[in-house]
Amino acid sequence: MTATFHYRENVLYCEDVELSRITAETGTPCYVYSTDALREGYLAYERALEGAPHRVCFAVKANSNLSVLRLLGELGAGFDIVSGGELFRVLKAGGDPSKVVFAGVGKTREEIEFALGQGIFGFNCESEAELALISSLAVRLRKTASVSVRVNPDVDAQTHPYISTGLREHKFGIDIAEVEQVYERARLLPNLALNGVSCHIGSQLLDAAPLIESARKMISLAERLRTRGFDIHHLDLGGSIGVPYQPGEVQPDLAGYLTAVRLLIEGKDLTLMFEPGRWVAARAGALLTRVLYRKRNGEKEFMVVDAAMNDLIRPALYQAWHEIQPLRKNQFGTVLADVVGPICESGDFMARDREVVNALPGDTLALLNAGAYGFTQASNYNARPRACEVLVDGAAWRIVRRRETFEDLIRGEE
Ligand SMILES: *Cc1c(COP(=O)(O)O)cnc(C)c1O
Predict the structure, then answer these.
(1) Do 120 and 205 reside in the same domain of the chain?
(2) Count of the separate structural domains present in the chain
(3) SS3 of 413, please?
(4) Is 277 helix (H, G, I), strand (E, B) or coil?
């Protein structure tokens, strides 16, 4: 539980809104986000970095709802994007393109042109071919593209293999051992300003040590590049430190991590950049789902709910663990069960062999810590309309994305 999602007399609230009041109007499944938690997640970075030159760019892929982006943009956030579609969303939400960094191994020509045209802050480039393409497009558009090479610092993030990105064997970035030669060759390309270095070693790191080790390696790289005459003025250290999902996981010390990095760059005249997604959004959101059926197959107890892997794929994709709490506590104790969705896949589960509240059909449950990589990874698999999204602010709430209809499912088809 968090301060955001909490019980008052056995009834679950988000901030000052009773969650069952929301589902009575919206139905389920429904994502609910807390304005206060989003704000606090972002401001935790701002506070720890106050006084040091820095920029915090929210990773749009974690939660790209327009109202969420608008809220963060109004607090001063920049944005880390990985596609032209995400840039479109940022612009629609009133985000400032001059605070946008564009990451990703497969940027297309059209996406690069769109980003150059909008005047984004810069590109985090992942290959020499991409550097060459950005250069040629910048020449054509008569722009100078600010670029950092995404470096693979060869640090083991010790996180889930699907969200670990900083080893030589991964598809991301350019090997730190080769990157100086890449900058040297890129020096010859026109209309590029090679003014930064970037890395992102993985997501959901519960230990700051690998992040600090990679910061150390990146700072000495920046200094070596300066010695070679490159005007390196920013250091982008990528995504956030992890958040606790399971009991027993301890919340990492974000301020401690950021302070350690600040000390490392002291006096070096480098602007620090961070691209947190999960830290800002995960704890700010819950997915509300109704219990449809209870059933028993042999020894196994199942709780069938109306949210499925198309709504929240993290359990299926990363063996992720989401705390499950009832909207109203009952007197029936707990039960060892699999909480599963209606989709025709054995991987369609929200929890496996979990001691969960002994909920009955008709009861509503909250899957907590679902604000990051929840709705953004939702799909229409099994022709299921995507859930609605709600934003709570104090005692007020509003639908910030309506539930899809059957008509939405076939839009654009013949
Ligand atoms: C996904 C991603 C992030 C955000 O990671 P979080 O763990 O959600 O903070 C930041 N930067 C890059 C390049 C990413 O791919």
Answers:
(1) yes
(2) 2
(3) coil
(4) coil
Query: How many angstroms is it from 377 CA to the middle of ligand 1?
Result: 14
Alpha-carbon distance 189 to 206, whole Å? 40
Candidates 376, 349, 329, 408; CA nearest to 63 is 376
End-to-end distance of the chain based on CA atoms, in angstroms? 46
Domain end call among 228, 252, 274: 274
Q: End of a domain among 274, 306, 329? A: 274
Helix (H) or strand (E) holding 40: helix 35-49
Dmax over Cα atoms in the chain, in whole Å? Answer: 72
User: Per-residue pLDDT tens for 17-57?
Assistant: 999 999 999 999 999 999 999 999 999 999 999 999 999 99
Half-sphere exposure of residue 410: CA atoms within 13 angstroms, side-chain side: 3
Does any domain span residue 91?
no
Pair (262, 377) in one structural domain: no
Return the HEC string of 43-77. HHHHHHHCCCCEEEEEEHHHCCCHHHHHHHHHCCC
Pairing of strands 122-125, 100-102: parallel
> 38, 61, 218, 236: which to mutate for ligand 1, most atoms within 8 A of CB?
61
Instruction: Kindly report, residue by residue over 80-94, the tens digit of the pLDDT.
Output: 999 999 999 999 999
223: containing domain: 104-274
Same domain for 213 and 150: yes
The protein residue whose alpha carbon is closest to atom 5 in ligand 1 is 239
Over the stretch 139-192, which tens digit does the pLDDT of each residue have? 999 999 999 999 999 887 776 666 666 666 677 889 999 999 999 999 999 999
Tell whether ligand 1 has an atom less than 6 A from the beta carbon of residue 314: no
Decide: helix, strand or coil at residue 164: strand
From the CA of 240, give the closest atom in ligand 1. 9
Q: What is the mean pLDDT of residues 210-232?
A: 97
Tell me if the pTM is above 0.85: yes
Nearest to 273 by CA among 308, 222, 307: 222
DSSP 206-273: S-SHHHHHHHHHHHHHHHHHHHTT----EEE--SPBP---STTPPPP-HHHHHHHHHHHHTTS--EEE
Q: Hey, what are 259's tokens?
A: 């302070």
337: domain CATH number?
Answer: 2.40.37.10
CATH number at residue 115: 3.20.20.10
Q: Which residue has the tokens 């590049």?
A: 225
